[in-house]
Amino acid sequence: MPKSAKLSGIKSLRCYTIPEAAGVTGVSDRTIRAWIKQGLTAMTDERPTLVRGDALISYIQRQRQGRKSRLSPDEFYCLKCRAARKPASGLVDCETDGTRAKLSAICETCDTIMHKPIPPDSVPTLAKTFDVTLRGEPSQKANAASETTARNRH
Question: pTM of the full predicted structure?
Fold first, then answer.
């Protein structure tokens, strides 16, 4: 079973039994029953218990919104702490491949490695905040300059 429920197969104007709702979302029957206890609107007066598709969609979307964490530019999300954390001692590694950049740092609380994707254009501004160590392939301009220098030597 997937860790998160799928929204793509749910029809908003349809009513689902608990096993049907479980099948369409990709979670177990027990999960759907737990969601009903936690506030998912269901028609429980008669058997079988029915769940409206639009109620299921809105419940899953509310769950997802509640899990989102907004980060400031100087924060990373630590998976072990499950919270926004700053890098230990302000030390950050930046790995670039021309089109992408990925920051890596150690959590100041639990010493876990944290990662954060960023646009390559924002690396110089982050260098003002953090002590950044650049790793990875050099940029295309640097490659072109080194090729020109190599040709001039021969």
Answer: 0.53
Q: Would you call the peptide bond into 48 cis, given omega within 30 degrees of 0 as the criterion?
A: yes
Write the pLDDT tens digit of every residue in 38-97.
Answer: 999 999 888 999 999 999 999 999 888 877 777 888 888 888 888 888 898 888 888 888
Beta bridge partners of 116: 103
The pLDDT, as a whole number, for residue 3 is 64
Q: Which SS3 state, helix, strand or coil, does residue 21 take?
A: helix
Cα 95 from Cα 137, distance rounded (Å) = 8
Closest CA to 40 of 56, 16, 23, 54: 56
CB atoms within 10 A of CB 36: 17
**Dist CA 104 CA 100 (whole Å):** 13
Cβ atoms within 10 Å, residue 5: 22
Q: Which two tokens stand for residue 13?
A: 């104007």
